[in-house]
Amino acid sequence: MKADPGAQLRLLDLQVVDTSLAQLEHRRRSLPEHAEIARLRQVASGLAAELVAADTAVSDLEVEQSNAESDLEPVRQRLIRNEHRIADGTVSDPKALSSLIDEVQHLKQRIATLEDGELEIMEQLESAEAGREKLRGEAAALDSQLSTLLTKRDAQLGELDAEVADRRLERETIALEIPADLMALYVKIGASHGGVGAAALRQRRCTGCQLEVNAAELRDFAAAPADEVLRCEECMRILIRTPSSGLQP
Fold first, then answer.
1. How many helices (H) and strands (E) does the chain have?
2. CA atoms within 13 A on the CB side of 4
């Protein structure tokens, strides 16, 4: 392949830009905030599940408390009626009065048992509500932490994106100075060589694979026309001749 020496040299400038773009993309992907945000979101997901369970527990206990109160109310009303009948003297039959008094005692014991059960439910409900509030506080603090991290991450991504945009514009400008066939070769090689399609020949060494070119190849390179596109025999990258290549005139 033939290409103007100036266009070949511009490949090195293009390679600098492409390397910079790759580094920027790596920085973009590896921001420490990404991992921390992912971790906090996982924690938030767990908290959300705990909150659902806490809401369910509170709701169930509220139903239990309501049911306990519903069970108590008719027993209390019956006790009031019986005590009123005993107090107003409307029950004159001694046997019926004795039975009524016994029922009053039974109702009081029943009420005591139901009130103890309701009190236990109320204590459980209070504990469940406190646990739920604690989880809500943790979730709110986590949301705040996530918001701060997202803001920090997005600011960094914005700066990196702006730098990427500048570099891409620079790349487009340089690419216009490079022949299409040479550009296509550079892109093809770069795709299979870690993004590095061109390397300088410096002090008889390929800066792509960092291997020294043997004497026979150096003689061939020195004898090659200036517009001939050279390739490294080891890594097959495009080799660009510079004043520091170490070739004999």
1. 5, 4
2. 7
Same domain, 167 and 203: no
Residues 146 and 185 in one domain: no
What one-character DSSP code corresponds to residue 74? H
Cα 203 from chain centroid? Answer: 47
Last residue within a domain, chosen from 138, 156, 174? 174
Give, in degrees to the nearest 5, the angle at Cα 45 between 41 and 48. Answer: 130
Closest CA to 217 of 229, 201, 233, 203: 233
Q: What is the pLDDT of residues 37-82, one digit of tens each?
A: 999 999 999 999 999 999 999 999 999 999 999 999 999 999 999 8
Structural domain range at position 156:
31-174
Between 88 and 161, residue with greater pLDDT: 161
What's the per-residue H, E or C state across 45-56? HHHHHHHHHHHH
Assess whether 49 and 147 both reside in one domain.
Answer: yes
Burial 107-144 (b: 16+ CB within 10 A, else e): beebbeebeeebeebeebbeebeebbeebeeebeebee
Which pTM value belongs to this model? 0.74
